[in-house]
Write a structure and sequence with these properties.
The strands form 2 sheets. Strands 3-2-1-7-8-9 form a 6-stranded parallel β-sheet, with helices on both faces. 39% of the residues are buried. It is of the alpha/beta class. It contains 12 helices and 9 strands. Helix 10 links the parallel strand 7 and strand 8. The protein folds into 2 domains: 4-37 and 86-126 and 175-263, TPP-binding domain (Rossmann fold), CATH 3.40.50; 47-83 and 133-167, SIR2/SIRT2 'Small Domain', CATH 3.30.1600.
Length: 264
């Protein structure tokens, strides 16, 4: 349960952002997905996959060494992710987006749950496990085509290279256009909301610092203090995102309704 006095101050900061028609930028991490039952990359290495290293499963070198194994690993992960449902934190972010015309959701997650919940403006820093591209030239490959293929992995219909998941593997650069948009959003944020991220994975972890330097208020929701908390966070709301974020959104909505009523 978050501290009610801090919750009230966080709501007031959101109110000020709303009244100023400012920009709300949200950064989400694995903690949000975990509350939908999606294990982190390390936690997913169970059962048949327990003895494999990350270097075997999520690098270009690992894929080239054993493409069938890596393809099967991502099939396993994709199927487990598909069974998950958006949780109340995802839905609260959809409601927040409806309140702020200038809204950007930046996520480190690859599970598509923000979009399934209804979020519109989503920047996926690490890709999406439900998208595919070819290994050599990044040609996009549709799920329909993959469903018709018996190869493991399938081949690109354009250049015949192997098809891979459109996610960022270890050692790879983040998608430049997405990253540029994320940095631009952070640099122009009036308020940044951090949810469920450890704050240790860069360059995502540098976004709140950039927002803070540009004058933004920073609110964090996490079960425990993160690497960012002591340096950039103005209001820390402790607790699981699926509980705290809906509470924050509901309190803001009540304040906005009351304000409209007083003006009516």
């Amino acid at each position: 349960m978050p501290d009610l006095a801090i919750l009230d101050k966080a709501v007031e900061a959101l109110m000020q952002c709303h009244q100023a028609q400012g920009s709300l930028v949200v950064l989400t991490g694995a903690g949000v997905s975990k509350e939908s039952g999606i294990p982190t990359f390390r936690d997913a290495q169970t059962g048949l996959w327990a003895n494999y290293k990350a270097e075997d499963l999520a690098t270009r070198e690992g894929f080239l060494s054993n493409p069938a194994m890596v393809w099967d690993w991502y099939d396993f992960r994709r199927n487990s992710v598909w069974q998950a449902e958006p949780n109340p934190a995802h839905h609260a972010l959809v409601d927040l987006e409806s309140l702020f015309p200038a809204f950007t959701l930046i996520t480190q997650n690859i599970d598509n749950l923000h979009q399934r919940a209804g979020s519109q403006c989503v920047l996926e820093l690490h890709g999406n496990i439900f998208r595919y591209k070819c290994l050599e030239r990044n040609h996009p490959v549709s799920l329909d085509l993959l469903a018709d293929s018996e190869a493991s992995p399938p081949h690109c219909p354009v250049c015949n290279a192997w098809v891979r998941p459109d996610v960022v593997w270890f050692g790879e650069m983040l998608p430049p256009k997405v990253l540029d948009r994320a940095f631009d959003a952070a640099a122009h944020a009036t308020l940044m909301l951090i949810v469920g991220t450890s704050g240790v994975v860069h360059p995502a972890a540098s976004l709140p610092q950039l927002a803070k330097e540009a004058g933004a208020t920073v609110i964090e929701i996490n079960p425990e203090l993160s690497a960012l908390t002591p340096f950039v966070v103005d209001y820390f709301l402790q607790g699981p995102a699926a509980m705290v974020l809906p509470e924050l959104q509901s309190a803001l909505t009540r304040r906005l309704v009351a304000l409209e009523g007083s003006h009516g």
